[in-house]
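Can anyone check this?
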Amino acid sequence: MSAIDQYLYTCLGAIDCPISYELLMGYRGIVHIAIYILEQDIPEYETSFQGKQGDILVGGGSGETPALRIKMPDAIRWVTDFEQFDKEYQSGRKGLYTAYWSCTQAFMIGSGFVKLGWNPEEIDIENWIMNHVVSFLVQNYKERFSEFIGTEPLDYDGSICHMLTDEEDKIVNWQKYK
């Protein structure tokens, strides 16, 4: 059981990350990293991740892949309406995402994301993932996030993410119906 399974969520998609190291229970190869939207606030005692209802988690924490929290709707506003967001918050990217992985886990995950096009000399991994996930959400869930989407073009195409197949959806979204 993954840490995320204790909470209400909806899985919106996934990233298939090719890793060369044993990240999860001795498994290496293509690791399916789920993209969740939280349907409730996470209690402070949870150690695998934190988040508020509406935030995005990339990875489900303990028992799954380590999590990256993306603060919503601020991340969408940052990516699609930078100038307005920057005027209002004057905070840059600080607080838009929080990684819940160790240095070793970051190395293992990062090695897979390099194969998907991440260049650590150009952008930090959390920002790169956030930009791809936001682009994926804007393109595939426009109606859900329309009130937060600005007019600036997307710098990333979201191509590392994909919609769930019907079979994947049945497996990962059973929790929301409990």
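Reply from J.R.: I decoded it. The mean pLDDT is 87.
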